[in-house]
Design brief:
heterodimer; A: mainly alpha; Cytochrome C Oxidase, Chain A; two-stranded antiparallel ribbon; about 0% strand; B: alpha+beta; Immunoglobulin-like; 2 domains; 5-stranded mixed β-sheet; 9 helices; 10 strands
């Protein structure tokens, strides 16, 4: 019943919009500012998110190259580093404070600015209206603000790199007391203030975006587009938005308490502290662990905020390019739902060794390992989607297959880390780095690349260069495994994270050669990403032009819009939908678009 | 910039240019050949590369293991460590099997079902039996893993045996301070505001009355032994009471496979039984330089990477000898100094002025 009501509402809205749009097309002239800068067109906002994300990915990646240089060559000096970085690299060696600033910024930038804003910001904006058949977001204005708050967050974060005492350097998790006390770390002086303000802006951005995505998906679907007919991309983006809306405020509250502890003399996180400078702080009775609860209550859902959009896009791309329906659509939706629920119930598995009550820990073990069940369902469903398909290896398809491979590899090590007794040994070692980089970092990047390669023709009306795309895929795929697979072994040997030099340790100095190898591969992989960035910007202007409206032979609605859709997406009526998005290879037909009415003789599934 | 840097940059740039030219050229060739033919050709090449990646990858995984298995996880040096290693082996077998199975299926399917003009795809939107199988089977395996894991977890985090010796470990930027309770077997009170590095009271032990902090002297603190070395006895359970003076640290004991955060204001504990003395481990690991080390495993500031603590595991007899040689901190920090300086009536004069004890002093009894 509710479905009907919603559909009906959408219908009314549609006709109104069409009317409005006709006016729009004929009478308004868009200026450069309204079209490219303060645009309220979801497609332009998506591109803004994407390009800002690419810039951040470049910076964040460059930071990793710098600290890999230190890890691979701890003994060597690089005089040119001092030329560029000044006192941060005195004598051509990266200073410890700067090393920690680098890893902190690398984490923050990639987790939040690239894989949250750059990934769901881009594709939620671009795909939601196009795939559900809407003219734009529920509130284009809030949508625009969402980008500009992100922009503000970006500028503040960037500016923190140029502060005298350096940017935040207490890790991307910013645990107090380290992050609360300027006396404990240089980066915790002005750096952390800027970091918190930037993150607050980011939370605002992500809430504005998220609320918009949710209301658009729920209310603005075109006629016939029931919730069980929306493509899996939309389901994934929907759950992503829900996760963000429910968990980011908790993070913000944690940050505000941190700000109070820093400047207002409160003791939420501080107790019994005597600084090395000889000063005993007055704060007593706070709990440093409280921040970790608040942080990971977002921190863990955040992992899925990063991963779910990739899962959704991969499902769509795998099905389209296998020319075969996604296997188990409802199971895919159900497992997304299960993951979204469980995402809120597992945060303390990041805290097994904080002195957490062992019984509480055991509950979190159980809930954590439960996530493996929906994850397994997803993997097997993807595999079955490939089975007896007719696969075209477009660059997007290759990245999707790469995603599945990485998701398996990284997901399985989650079973190790989620089991608290193993976590005692593996916690905060390279094993963790390997795990989350593979399953969340690289896998989501693969999802993002897949999405870019797949929807680039829709975004810019041109193709990316295929040869460069294949080179990009293969070197990244091989490189990602070469970088992160051996790190499992370093982790098993107990190598702690966030060490810039292991040579003084009897227990940890056996991996010098391996670290150098990883650093070299990391640099190669980074330079190949530059090739992608070049391909991206070059093809906007010079890429091969798209001539067919539906270049991949896809069922979803975005491919019924014109080659270069204007604001409003469809010039006439919004198309009506008659079936789900995955009728590939049905009744001997290669694909049947969602807009095609169900034939009288069509078989049922 | 040095010559090598310029050289590397030049090579990179050249590489880009060449790649770009080839990419451009192949695009034109593709247009000439026709879209369909290009697609088929690319498809064949990539399908082959995928299967090559699978085979090469699996060989790589094997080689990687052969290369590094000697560098990880020597024999666990504690009873808990042995349990954890057992758990690890079970987990590696289960997840390893799933890993190989799913990766092989993924790449094999991709290769086998690559585009062919003749192939008709199998329209298979769902199958309840299959879906049920891969919901239930993983759930069963996970139950086993959770069961084993929690069984060990409760053993490891449960109460230590009654005869365990107790040592207090305190982290600070950037080293570790150990405290033994001394002859009376009781840890005396301490208070963080009483810490004074210049007076050699790094833990803030309340040796004498401190009226400005409302602290009353605790006799039990006067025989406490403060040292920078963690001395343990092989075969004897030890319970560590862990704290921190400033930020969060983490007592990482890689050979014992143990780890616990050091949180300012909230003491934590962990216990285990070291199995082998340092000397025995030198033989076992075939490394004459072997030492047990405490690594800080929680980011704690610029010196985090060098925050090392020393651990030595000895026999009971050796431990007793060492213990006798240790002087109480109160002795070395206060009494010995008073002897060398002029005898001051200071400390005794202040005694017994304040009667109530400050609320936040930490007293730990075994």
């Amino acid at each position: 019943m509710s479905n009907e009501a919603i559909t009906h509402g959408a219908e009314v809205h549609t006709s109104h919009d069409t009317h409005h749009d006709e006016h729009h097309v004929h009478h308004h002239k868009e200026t450069f500012i309204t079209k490219y800068v303060f645009s309220q067109d979801h497609k332009m906002i998506a591109k803004q998110f994407l390009i800002t994300g690419i810039i951040w990915a470049f910076l964040g990646g460059l930071m990793s190259v710098l600290f890999r240089l230190q890890l691979g060559y701890p003994e060597t000096t690089f005089p040119w580093l001092e030329d560029i970085l000044g006192h941060w690299a005195k004598g051509g060696k990266i200073q410890p404070e700067f090393y920690y600033a680098l890893v902190t910024m690398h984490g923050t930038v990639l987790v939040f600015f690239v894989l949250t804003a750059g990934l769901s910001g881009t594709f939620a904006n671009f795909l939601i209206p196009l795939q559900i058949g809407a003219r734009d977001m529920a509130s284009p204005m809030l949508n625009m603000l969402s980008y500009w708050f992100f922009w503000l967050a970006s500028v503040i974060m960037l500016s923190s790199l140029f502060v005298q005492t350096g940017p935040a350097s207490g890790g991307w998790t910013s645990y107090p007391p380290l992050s609360a006390l300027g006396g404990a770390s240089e980066g915790s002086k002005t750096g952390v203030d800027l970091w918190i303000i930037s993150m607050a802006m980011f939370v605002v951005s992500s809430l504005l975006g998220g609320l918009n995505y949710i209301s658009t998906i729920l209310n603005m679907r075109t006629k016939g587009m029931s919730m069980t007919r929306i493509p899996l991309t939309i389901w994934a983006l929907f759950f992503t938005a829900v996760l963000g809306v429910l968990s980011f405020p908790v993070l913000l509250s944690g940050f505000i308490l941190l700000l109070f502890d820093r400047h207002a003399g409160t003791s939420f996180y501080l107790s019994d502290i005597y600084l090395a400078s000889g000063e005993a702080l007055p704060n007593e009775g706070g709990s440093a662990i409280l921040f970790q609860h608040l942080f990971w209550f977002l921190g863990h859902p955040e992992v899925y905020i990063i991963l779910l959009p990739a899962m959704g896009m991969v499902s769509e791309i795998l099905s389209t390019n296998s020319r075969k329906p996604i296997f188990g659509y409802m199971a895919m939706v159900g497992s997304l739902f299960a993951i979204a629920i469980l995402a809120f119930l597992v945060w303390a598995h990041h805290m097994f060794v904080t002195g957490l009550n062992p019984f509480l820990g055991s509950v979190f073990v159980l809930l954590t390992l439960l996530i493996a069940v929906p994850s397994a369902i997803k993997v097997f469903n993807w595999l079955t989607t490939l089975w007896r398909g007719n696969i075209r290896f477009t660059p997007a398809m290759l990245f999707s297959i790469g995603f599945v491979s990485l998701f398996i590899s990284g997901g399985l090590t989650g079973i190790w880390l989620g089991n608290s007794s193993l976590d005692i040994h593996l916690h905060d070692t390279y094993f963790v780095i390997a795990h989350f980089h593979i399953v969340m970092g690289v896998a989501s990047f693969f999802g993002m690349f897949a999405g870019i390669y797949h929807w680039y023709p829709k975004m810019y009306g041109r193709y990316l260069n295929n040869t460069m795309a294949y080179i990009h895929f293969w070197i990244t795929m091989v490189g990602a495994y070469l970088i992160f697979w051996p790190m499992h072994y370093e982790g098993l040997a107990g190598l702690p994270r966030r060490y810039l030099d292991y040579s003084n340790w009897v227990s940890f100095n056996q991996f010098g050669g391996l670290n150098r190898f990883i650093s070299i591969v990391a640099m190669i992989v980074f330079s190949v990403q530059l090739l992608f960035v070049f391909n991206f910007f070059y093809s906007i202007f010079k890429g091969r032009k798209v001539t067919s409206q539906n270049p991949w032979g896809s069922n979803t609605l975005e491919w019924t819009a014109p080659l270069r859709p204007g604001h409003g997406n469809w010039p006439g009526e919004i198309p009506e939908v008659h079936r789900w998005a995955y009728d590939y290879g049905k009744d001997g037909r290669e694909f049947i678009p969602q807009t095609e009415p169900v034939g009288a003789n069509e078989s049922h599934h | 910039m040095s010559l090598t840097t310029i050289f590397i940059l030049a090579i990179l740039l050249l590489g880009f240019l060449i790649t770009f030219q080839i990419a451009k050229a192949s695009e034109y060739v593709g247009i000439l050949k026709g879209e369909k033919k290009t697609l088929e050709q690319n498809n064949r090449i990539n399908a082959f590369l995928l299967i090559l990646f699978l085979v090469g990858g699996l060989i790589g995984v094997y080689c990687c293991h052969e290369l590094f298995k000697g560098k990880i996880l020597g024999e666990a040096a504690s009873d808990h460590g042995q349990k954890i290693d057992k758990m690890l082996h079970l987990t590696v077998i289960i997840t390893g099997a799933v890993f190989v199975l799913t990766q092989v299926l993924l790449f094999w399917f991709a290769f086998k079902y690559q585009y062919s003009e003749k192939r008709k795809v199998y329209y298979l939107p769902h199958n309840n039996t299959l879906e049920l199988i891969w919901t239930v089977v993983p759930a069963i395996f996970l139950t086993v893993l959770v069961g084993y894991g929690l069984f060990y977890w409760f053993k490891i985090t449960g109460d230590p045996p009654k005869d365990a010796m107790v040592v207090e470990v305190t982290g600070k930027q950037f080293n570790w301070i150990m405290r033994y309770p001394g002859k009376d077997d009781v840890f005396g009170r301490k208070y963080y505001k009483n810490i004074s590095d210049k007076d050699d009271n790094s833990l803030g032990l309340i040796w004498s009355d401190v009226p400005e902090l409302n602290l009353k002297a605790d006799k039990a603190a006067q025989d406490d032994i403060v040292t920078d070395k963690l001395m343990l006895v092989a075969g004897k359970p030890v319970k560590l009471i862990i704290g921190s003076r400033d930020v969060i640290h983490d007592v990482g004991l890689v050979h014992f496979r143990m780890k616990m955060d050091a949180v300012p204001g909230t003491p934590t504990t962990m216990w285990f039984t070291p199995l082998y003395t340092t000397k025995e481990m030198k033989v076992k690991t075939n490394n004459p330089d072997f030492v047990y080390e405490i690594s800080c495993d929680q980011m704690c500031g610029k010196g985090h990477y060098s925050m090392k603590g020393q651990v030595e595991v000895v026999t009971q007899a050796e431990f007793d000898v060492w213990m006798i040689s240790q002087k109480a901190k109160y002795q070395t920090a206060v009494l010995d100094k008073q002897k060398t300086d002029k005898p001051a009536a200071d400390t005794t004069a202040k005694a017994a002025v304040v009667s109530n004890v400050a609320p936040n002093t930490v007293a730990v009894k075994k």
